[in-house]
């Protein structure tokens, strides 16, 4: 049973006495009822989303030290010397960009989760389409008009904005620090978030006489503006109160960083007791990660534009986390980064990179399961200009994990209402936070669960995999990330299985077989030669 | 400043609770033959310029609707004087350019780019504020949003000035000419890395956006492929920018001379043209792209969302977009005829299309300054003059529209991002900033170096036909400042502000006449301004004021 159904089915007699005197009819859609529904599922967890705008070069961020021969061939002019790559405690083949000392420290202290190879099938190389895909959670080629956070907030706070602010949720549901609002917060009926630049003082808006809004497009827009006006006034005082009550330390953050200023405002609102569930900030005002050229300084590849951008990101994230720890708020907060795509394996001669596909993603906070999830990307030995980093994890599996294990949303509701498909959650957050038990964590690491023979192959190859039972998925992608075939997508009993993949008229080159069974996934490189 | 206005009757009408009404606008591009009154003239001006001033409305009413559109399309302010060194001081001298002369032709490396960028933004704002009855300024903004570049990204305002002039001079000319010029424009070559796109290092950036954003778009019928992006990038190899000369040139040695194969979307075209060392391939590429049906459709959807409304349903697509696109394509991509078709149509003047457009920030701020007749400092104090223009532009930037610095190459999301579109301009950050500016301009104005920009409520009121009649003043002011009808209770309340809650109209008539007969009498002045300021504030703080 859905949590909301449960609330709706409570006999009215058991509702608090404050309801007495109200007619039952009015309760059916009353704000109080939705507020009760909200409070029933309340925990105090907060998610902070950091959007890395422009497409971050993952291969120069989380660096696969075991792929250096390929990387040298593909991108020698931007490759970071292996001697400068920052090592991570307990990890031998993966390191961080030299500018990311702050996040290296977080990793070594157990506050950072790195998820390798996050992407989606059939990657779009358009900034705008790929950003839309990440913020809506749609499949490549589909078009959803709501954001994944908008759907979550609509699920958690049904009926918004009617009845809000209320006793169940007196504060803004979500806040974006900036002048405009991301479509990630677009709900089915309305935007679910507030855009704020200065939470300490928001100009009071007048409440003039309301002329009837005509049933025309003009009336539609008028009603929208009135709604924003009313919400702004309602939330302005709670924001300034929380901001005044909160504490944060400016000196922790890199001076002049817009991302730092935004995260500092978030830290202060959180420590001030705001119950807002989701915050979003972006790197956009500190420069673009769209590093087509001059990504690095020629001959000094650990410096330059990308290094500065990564240092800012890394320093700001650690400052934010330290700030939260100082105000004893860090147990409530998980942060997540995302970028619309990674960049191409092969670099440009102008010491930059074109748009790519899968890339690593960071989750941070006191309650993350620290470590690296997934393997270093398996790169083709001689990448072509179109070859991309293969996807290991669907980004919606990251979303599903946070929704299930941090916001405690039942998986069935995630599938049916928020992500609209079944995406396996991953071990990212200490799942005891939602009392659903500890995930199996990479217990199969090092064990080969998928292989193929012959490899290289000419006409067909047999793919053998070992499932532990339950939902099992085997997909074949080409080097650019296009999903060619889904060979298995069903519940299976535990055991070894073999399926055949035929080369048909596919071009020669690199292919990937991806296996997913519950939280376990592996990617197998295959080569088609003729 | 707080608004000590009464909440008055908290009316919640049934209409307020209507769900988002399905719009059913079935009017077509047939020539408009309806009434031509202040309402229609103001509608035309609000959509094609920045705010409708009383003088411009009066002027259009001396013409027919058809003549009015012709004037908007054909009139031009001519080439504006270029932006000047407004920033030089004894401690911050420009070594190459004296104060009061233009920096745009300075060919030396310069460390004053930040100051010059502000100068360029101020200058464009001043051109918008000083616009004549013409579409040219708004159409320039349309193309800036369409062929978006970020001044803060490419950094040097000298190519920025030329980019803006390229757009302005071609704004109502030929699209093929414009897109060709933009493809070779130094600012664009720097912004989208075209200047580093060479045969040995093909860079897909411009080749992608040329298709995705500038020509065929990403609608469901736009079926170009990743290999088309790569082929276009190869066609475009070889363009270079000369530093400090703001010119581009074609370097044949950097051009990929291999054949470029395009997909079925482009009829499997192969581009392989050695003319002018390969430079002629650009024309082949643009010609190929413009031959698609989708290119004209996409451009017309962009025009529609910029000038009419964002909602394009299947009826609008069939009745409006498709015939506009046919005009554009069959008319060899001449821009003016398709604009004439739209602005002279019954659809454009359809009452359902009036008042539904949320003012973009530039329309809101520049429009307010123009409508209220705010007087800016003259050029005897260039620093303060430019500072004031920057001040207004800065408020627009605070409200998410920083001209010359859109958020990215797609332009401002309000013009393309479903489902919110224009509603994205209004949120809990921007609405208070808009309102705060209006209140400031009405009450204190903004003072700098002894000069002040402020809404002169006395002059604005005196420009009305019968300022001493409070009923007429309410009606005339509402008609000028709002594009929606308001309830009688609003009108009554506004009159009560003028009458300080009394019911005898004569009190206001006397007060205004006293002032009008002795304009230098500060006591008489104060009597009327203390009522006019809250009167205008009430109107400009209404949500209706955000619409046009």
Structure description:
The complex is a heterodimer of chains A (530) and B (548). The N terminus of chain A is likely disordered. Chain A folds into two domains: 376 residues, 3-Layer(aba) Sandwich (Alkaline Phosphatase, subunit A); 79 residues, Immunoglobulin-like, CATH 2.60.40. In chain A, strands 1, 5, 6, 7, 8, 9, 12, 13 and 14 form a nine-stranded mixed beta sheet that branches. The termini of chain A are far apart. The longest helix of chain A has 29 residues. Helices cover 26% and strands 23% of the residues of chain A. In chain A, helix 5 packs across helix 10, helix 8 crosses helix 9 and helix 9 runs parallel beside helix 10. Chain A is an alpha/beta fold. The radius of gyration of chain A is 24 Å and the shape is globular. Chain A contains twelve helices and 21 strands. Chain B has 548 residues and is mainly alpha-helical. Among the domains of chain B are: 200 residues, no CATH class; 88 residues, no CATH class. Chain B is built from 24 helices and six strands. Chain B has a two-stranded antiparallel ribbon with strand order 1-2. In chain B, strands 3-4 form a two-stranded antiparallel sheet. In chain B, strands 5-6 form a two-stranded antiparallel sheet. In chain B, a hairpin with a 4-residue loop joins strand 1 and strand 2. Chain B is globular. The N terminus of chain B is likely disordered.
């Amino acid at each position: 049973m859905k949590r909301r159904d449960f609330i709706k089915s409570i006999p009215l007699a058991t509702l608090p006495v404050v309801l007495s005197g109200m007619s039952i009819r009015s309760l059916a859609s009353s704000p109080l009822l939705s507020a009760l529904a909200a409070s029933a599922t309340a925990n105090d967890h907060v998610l902070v989303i950091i959007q890395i705008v422009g497409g971050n070069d993952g291969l120069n961020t989380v660096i696969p030290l075991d792929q250096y021969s390929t990387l040298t061939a593909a991108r020698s002019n931007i490759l970071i010397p292996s001697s400068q790559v920052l090592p991570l405690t307990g990890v031998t083949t993966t390191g961080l960009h030299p500018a990311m000392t702050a996040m290296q420290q977080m990793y070594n202290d157990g506050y950072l989760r790195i998820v390798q190879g996050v992407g989606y099938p059939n990657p779009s190389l358009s900034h705008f389409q790929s950003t839309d895909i990440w913020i809506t959670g749609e499949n490549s080629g589909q078009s959803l008009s709501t954001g994944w956070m908008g759907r979550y907030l609509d699920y958690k706070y049904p009926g918004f904005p009617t009845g809000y602010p209320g006793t169940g949720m007196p504060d803004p549901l979500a806040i974006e620090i900036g002048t405009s609002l991301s479509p990630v917060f677009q709900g089915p009926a309305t935007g679910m978030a507030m855009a704020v630049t200065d939470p300490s003082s928001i100009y009071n808006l007048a409440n003039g006489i309301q002329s009837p809004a005509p049933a025309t497009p003009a009336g539609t827009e008028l009603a929208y503006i009135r709604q924003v006006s009313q919400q702004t006034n309602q939330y302005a005082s709670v924001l300034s109160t929380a901001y005044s009550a909160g504490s944060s330390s400016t000196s922790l953050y890199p001076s002049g960083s817009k991302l730092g200023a935004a995260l500092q405002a978030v830290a202060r609102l959180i420590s001030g007791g705001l119950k807002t569930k989701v915050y979003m900030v972006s790197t956009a005002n500190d420069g673009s990660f769209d590093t087509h050229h001059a990504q690095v300084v020629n001959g000094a590849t650990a410096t330059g534009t990308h290094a500065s951008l990564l240092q800012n990101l890394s320093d700001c994230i650690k400052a934010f986390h330290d700030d939260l720890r100082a105000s004893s708020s860090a147990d409530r907060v998980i942060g997540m980064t995302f970028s619309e795509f990674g960049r191409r394996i092969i670099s440009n001669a102008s010491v930059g990179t074109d748009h790519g596909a899968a890339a690593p993603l960071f989750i941070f906070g006191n309650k993350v399961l620290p470590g690296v999830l997934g393997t270093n990307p398996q790169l083709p030995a001689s990448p072509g200009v179109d070859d991309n980093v293969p996807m290991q994890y669907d980004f919606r599996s990251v979303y599903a994990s946070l929704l299930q294990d941090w916001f405690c949303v039942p998986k069935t509701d995630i599938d049916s209402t928020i992500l609209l498909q079944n995406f396996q959650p991953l071990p990212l957050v200490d799942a005891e936070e939602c009392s659903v038990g500890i995930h199996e964590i990479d217990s199969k690491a090092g064990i080969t669960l998928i292989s193929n023979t012959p490899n290289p192959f000419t006409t067909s190859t047999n793919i053998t995999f070992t499932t532990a039972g339950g939902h099992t998925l085997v997909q074949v992608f080409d080097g650019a990330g296009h999903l060619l075939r889904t060979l298995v997508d069903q519940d299976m009993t535990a055991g070894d299985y073999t399926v055949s993949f035929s080369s048909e008229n596919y071009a020669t080159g690199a292919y990937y077989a991806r296996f997913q069974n519950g939280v376990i996934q592996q990617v197998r490189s295959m080569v088609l030669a003729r | 400043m707080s608004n000590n206005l009464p909440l008055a009757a908290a009316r919640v009408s049934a209409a307020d609770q209507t769900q988002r009404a399905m719009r059913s606008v079935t009017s077509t591009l047939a020539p408009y033959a309806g009434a031509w009154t202040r309402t229609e003239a103001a509608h035309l001006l609000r959509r094609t310029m920045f705010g409708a001033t009383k003088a411009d409305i009066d002027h259009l009413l001396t013409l027919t609707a058809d003549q009015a559109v012709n004037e908007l399309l054909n009139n031009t302010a001519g080439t504006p004087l270029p932006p000047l060194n407004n920033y030089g001081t004894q401690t911050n001298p420009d070594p190459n350019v004296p104060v009061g002369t233009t920096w745009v032709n300075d060919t030396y490396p310069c460390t004053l780019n930040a100051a010059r960028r502000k100068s360029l933004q101020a200058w464009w704002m001043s051109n918008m504020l000083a616009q004549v009855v013409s579409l040219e300024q708004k159409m320039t903004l349309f193309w800036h949003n369409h062929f978006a570049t970020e001044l803060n990204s490419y950094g040097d305002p000298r190519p920025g000035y030329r980019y803006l002039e390229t757009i302005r001079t071609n704004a109502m000319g030929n699209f093929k000419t414009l897109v060709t010029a933009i493809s070779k424009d130094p600012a664009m070559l720097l912004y989208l890395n075209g200047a580093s796109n060479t045969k040995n290092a093909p860079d897909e950036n411009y080749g992608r956006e040329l298709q995705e954003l500038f020509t065929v778009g990403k609608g469901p019928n736009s079926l170009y492929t990743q290999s088309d992006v790569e082929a276009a990038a190869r066609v475009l190899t070889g363009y270079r920018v000369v530093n400090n000369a703001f010119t581009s040139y074609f370097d044949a040695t950097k051009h990929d001379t291999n054949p470029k194969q395009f997909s079925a979307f482009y009829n499997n075209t192969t581009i392989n043209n050695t003319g002018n060392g390969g430079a002629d391939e650009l024309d082949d590429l643009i010609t190929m792209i413009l031959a698609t049906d989708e290119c004209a459709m996409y451009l017309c959807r962009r025009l529609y969302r910029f000038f009419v409304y964002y909602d394009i349903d299947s009826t609008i697509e069939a009745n409006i977009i498709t015939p506009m696109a046919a005009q554009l394509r069959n008319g060899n991509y001449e821009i003016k005829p398709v604009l004439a078709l739209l602005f002279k149509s019954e659809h454009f003047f359809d009452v359902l299309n009036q008042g539904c457009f949320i003012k973009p920030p530039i329309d809101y701020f520049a429009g307010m300054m123009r409508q209220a007749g705010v007087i800016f400092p003259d050029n005897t104090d260039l620093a303060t003059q430019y500072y004031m223009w920057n001040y207004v532009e800065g408020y627009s930037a605070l409200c998410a529209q920083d001209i010359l610095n859109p958020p990215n190459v797609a332009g401002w999301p309000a013009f393309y991002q479903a489902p919110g579109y224009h509603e994205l301009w209004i949120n809990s950050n921007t609405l208070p900033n808009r309102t705060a500016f209006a209140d400031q301009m009405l009450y204190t104005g903004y003072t700098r170096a002894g000069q002040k920009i402020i809404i002169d409520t006395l002059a604005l009121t005196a420009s009305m036909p019968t300022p001493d009649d409070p009923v007429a003043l309410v009606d005339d002011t509402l008609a000028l400042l709002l594009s929606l009808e308001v309830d009688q209770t609003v009108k009554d309340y506004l009159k009560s502000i003028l009458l300080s809650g009394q019911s005898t109209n004569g009190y206001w008539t006397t007060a205004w006449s006293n002032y009008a007969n002795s304009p230098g009498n500060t006591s008489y002045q104060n009597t009327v301004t203390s009522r006019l300021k809250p009167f205008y504030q009430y109107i400009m703080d209404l949500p209706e004021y955000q619409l046009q």
